[in-house]
Amino acid sequence: MPLVVNLRHLEAHDIHLKGELPAAELDIDTRDEVIRVAQPLVHDLEAQKLENSILVQGHLRLNLECQCVRCLKPFQYRLELTGWTCHLPLQGEDRVAVVNDCVDLTPYVREDILLEFPRHPLCNPECRGLPKTSLGRVKNASSAGKTEVGPSAWSELNKLKL
Ligand SMILES: [Zn+2]
User: Fold this and answer.
1) Could you give the CA distance from residue 110 to residue 115 in angstroms, rounded to a whole number?
2) What is the pLDDT of residues 65-122, one digit of tens each?
3) What's the half-sphere exposure (Cβ side, CA atoms, 13 Å) at 157?
4) At 159, is the pLDDT very low, low, confident or very high (cuts 50, 70, 90)?
5) How far apart are alpha carbons 128 and 98 in whole angstroms?
6) How far apart are CA 102 and CA 27, in angstroms?
7) Contact by Cβ (8 Å): 129, 70
8) What is the distance in A from the centroid of ligand 1 to the CA of 111?
9) Which of 46, 121, 127, 154 lies 20 to 30 angstroms, CA to CA, from 108?
10) 158 CA → ligand 1 middle, Å
11) How far is the CA of 72 from the centre of ligand 1 (A)?
12) pLDDT in tens, 13-72
């Protein structure tokens, strides 16, 4: 279901938008190999009409597929915007595009989600990077070769917590 508010409906009553937006529709190009958007955006939003604008407030959640920049381990990062607010003018220079009485919220959601992306994703704030000595397998963390780092107990635990 696209993230769209119909202005005529909005004139009559507030609109509650609750559901999931497929990753393909959110269409975030991370241009980044350590963060991928594969899961749908979960949203629970309330839109109301103000005099010359629309006010949207609510909750956004998106699980990102990340790769730890220190140990290269894949993990999930839960990006959550509680109390997200978006004010969309219907008049003036900054007015939003209205197509067939509808305003698409997707670009505004996309923009704010992108701002919340982790700059340097870490599987764990304490991550110390690739193991150096334990098994003597990984001696040089900077070698760019494909070192197979399977999911460890830690990432399994993280999954359980999510
Ligand atoms: Zn890590």
Assistant:
1) 9
2) 999 999 999 999 999 999 999 999 999 999 999 999 999 999 999 999 999 999 899 9
3) 5
4) low
5) 50
6) 19
7) yes
8) 27
9) 121
10) 12
11) 6
12) 999 999 999 999 999 887 778 999 999 999 999 999 999 999 999 999 999 999 999 999
Ligand 1 centroid–CA 131 distance in Å is: 10
pLDDT at 154 over 90: no
Instruction: Quote the pTM value.
Output: 0.76
Q: For residue 75, give both structure tokens.
A: 């993990």
Extract the tokens encoding 161. Answer: 């917590």
The answer to whether 42 and 26 are in contact (CB under 8 A) is: no
> Which of 57, 27, 58 shows the shortest CA–CA distance to 40?
27
What distance in angstroms lies between residue 127's CA and the mean position of ligand 1's atoms?
5
The set of residues, in sequence order, having a beta carbon less than 8 Å from that of 14 and lying 6+ positions away, is 46, 47, 48, 49
Other C-beta atoms within 10 Å of 157: how many? 10
Residue 107, amino acid:
P
